[in-house]
Amino acid sequence: MPDETRRGLTDSHAHLSYVIERNGEAFLGEIAAAYSGGSGIIVDPGVEHDDFPKRKAAFGGLPFVRLTAGIWPDAESMKAVTERIAVLEGYARDEACVAIGECGLDYHWMNGTEAEQEALFRAQAELAVRYDKPLIVHSREARDDTLAIVSDFAPRIPVIIHCFGYDEDAARAFLSLGCWISFAGNMTYKRSDGLRAACAVVPEDRLLLETDAPYMCPEPRRGKDSSPLDIERTYTLAATLRGTSVERLGELVRRNAGSVFEKGRSS
Ligand SMILES: [Zn+2]
Hints:
This protein is α/β, with parallel strands linked by helices. It has one domain (3-261): Metal-dependent hydrolases (TIM Barrel). The chain has helices at 3-6, 16-23, 26-35, 52-59, 75-78, 81-92, 114-130, 143-153, 168-176, 193-201, 231-242, 246-261; strands at 42-44, 65-69, 97-106, 135-140, 159-161, 180-183, 207-209. Strand 5 (159-161), helix 9 (168-176) and strand 6 form a beta-alpha-beta unit. Bound molecules: zinc ion (ZN). Residues 13, 15, 45, 102, 212 line the site of zinc ion.
């Protein structure tokens, strides 16, 4: 792949702090070398109520990084929703925070009850509405409840279903609410026919692609740690599924990421 094409590949969801923890500080230089001077961006999502300042200090100076603030559905946060949302609200006011999330429902790990997960999720969605920021949604084995909650918010703010893990019918249901759908490296896995079918039908203006690094490493390195440097293989597959080129897909995803995450940004 030509360097110029590579530099244009946006990664709409990568946990840079975890990537650096696993690969060492010097690895940030490799990521910067792959992205600097290109049009592609990396969105680094928050997962803990107080992780924004240290991520901002570490990555906020990189021109290709966009930061968000959010709380993953963990049990401790469900026991302290008011306090933790108050902390998050401080970061939502920061213009470096381009979205709220990732947040949502995870009925696979099932931290807390469904009702507790919903309360933490809704509190963040309300914060996103209050500060007019997009919402990045994590949804695992919780399709119907996610659809029900998202339907309350998608008319008011952009909602991104990240690391989409359902099928074509579910994709159509989220799309009918106006959501953006972000596909990760698990789309390359052998048994992911439903994901591939979904990726093929998402309208051009609703498609995002991500690594979810350090997770979801695309084949042929399934099970290994991933990083934003692995995004190429997901683009290559998506381009094949959609009958387009990687270069054109790079432009399209960049434009979508811009319209979602860079509202009001001058550059
Ligand atoms: Zn994530």
